[in-house]
Amino acid sequence: MLEPLTEAASGSASPDQMLVTRLSLVSFRSYPSLEVEFPGGAQVIVGPNAAGKTNLVESLVVLGTGHSHRASLDGELIAWGADFARLEADVDSGTQSSIELVIARTSAGGGRKRALVNGVARRPGALAAALPVVLFAPEDMLLITGSPSGRRGSIDTLVAQTVPAAASTMANYSRALTQRNNLLRAIREGAAAPGELRFWDTVVVDDGSQIVDWRHETMALLAGPLAEAHAEIAPDERPLELNYLSNVVRGEGESTADALRRRLRGTADKEQWNGQTLVGPHRDDVSFVTDGRDLSGFASRGQQRTAILAFKLATLEVLRAAHERPPLLLLDDVFSELDPQRRAHLVRRIGELPQAFVTTTTTDDLDPALVAAATVWQVTPGSLERVSSAA
């Protein structure tokens, strides 16, 4: 028997609330123009595939993180034929605030972003403080067995949402890595000298070591909530842990920067031969472990999904502690991927939150108690219409 949804889920926000009360989109993906006001509680977005449900969720991700989880280029977010996209949200987190993000198309197909919080220009990466979000999407079901980049990205997203300077440092590291790789290829072709690497080595060491340290600190914060969430969902399974697998291991008395600098010296010839940077946080990985064994090698799909759900719930708790209020939970068509037991845990967590967004192709995939207590919206290409209000 599922526990009933709490008062927060039925539309009344608690003092430590996080509500998106208004969302406005102009030329964003499939939405030429959208203006909508949301109440508190669960927002169930219903519609067929390709109608725009994920685009709506993506807009909230972009407003909360400064970037998309789906697009490799910011220009992809701008509607076809438009020169710019504008996203706006009013947020009630105990105090009222407004967020605006404008993405202007560039000649190279990318996008130039300008972010405002309460009318003040901010870096896009700083939006996390105004609207912390946790996204659970179908692609997360491959988190354990998928590529290391997905696991690194999950940790880095959480780092950027809890450490104000992290997004800027990560972007700077990425740019430096691109420049260093270009230079390594030029050295391999005889068009540049190895001494020219010195400047980029400094940036990679300084920013790269900071990223590694932040990841370690963030994973330490996750450890307790992860173990608790996993034990709640699967009390008969062995404890779940995360391990950070780094290609830069510190020696006795070494800092992370010292170790990375040493590794760069040791791989210099190989890097110049390969034309790419072979050590640093961009080559690290994270493993989900039970009894010292990596889940990717033996766990059933059910065990993997339990671990992934526990990770998402732990992420929610870390953000709740960091921002002293619950983050906005975004569930993009994931209920159909879960069995009734795991769905029940999600429903209970949704009931504890001031607001959450849930997309689905049919409400048949959702618990009736959730649907009854939610505000239900029907999405069609380019529009969103309220079907029913929370009970």
Short summary:
This protein has nine helices and 15 strands.
For the termini, the CA-CA separation is 20 Å
Report low-confidence residues grouped into runs of 5 or more: 1-14
- Report the portion of residues in β strands: 15-25%
Q: Could you tell me the mean pLDDT?
A: 92
Structural class: alpha/beta
What strand line-up does the widest sheet have? 2-1-4-5-6-7
What percent of the residues sit in helical stretches (DSSP H or I)?
A: 25-40%
Order of helices and strands: EEEHEEEEEHHHEHHEEHEHEHEE
Largest sheet: 6 strands, antiparallel
> Could you tell me the radius of gyration in angstroms?
22 Å
Task: Give the tally of β-strands.
Answer: 15
Basic shape: globular
Counting DSSP H or I runs of 4 or more residues, the number of helices is: 9
SSE topology:
Elements (H helix, E strand, L loop, with lengths): L18 E10 L2 E7 L3 E6 L6 H13 L18 E9 L3 E10 L5 E7 L2 E3 L10 E4 L11 H15 L3 H23 L9 H36 L7 E5 L10 H11 L1 H7 L10 E6 L2 E2 L6 H23 L4 E5 L7 H12 L3 E6 L7 H6 L1 E6 L2 E6 L3
Parallel strand pairs: 3-13, 3-14, 8-12, 12-13
Antiparallel strand pairs: 1-2, 1-4, 4-5, 5-6, 6-7, 9-10, 10-11, 14-15
Helix pairs in contact: 2-4, 3-4, 3-6, 4-5, 4-7
Structure, described:
The structure is a single chain. The protein is built from 9 helices and 15 strands. Strand 5 and strand 6 form a beta hairpin. It is an alpha/beta fold and 391 residues long. Helix 3 crosses helix 4 and helix 3 crosses helix 6. The protein is 37% helix and 24% strand. The strands form 3 sheets. It has a 6-stranded antiparallel sheet, covered by helices on one side. The chain has a 6-stranded mixed sheet with strand order 8-12-13-3-14-15, sandwiched between helices. 43% of the residues are buried.
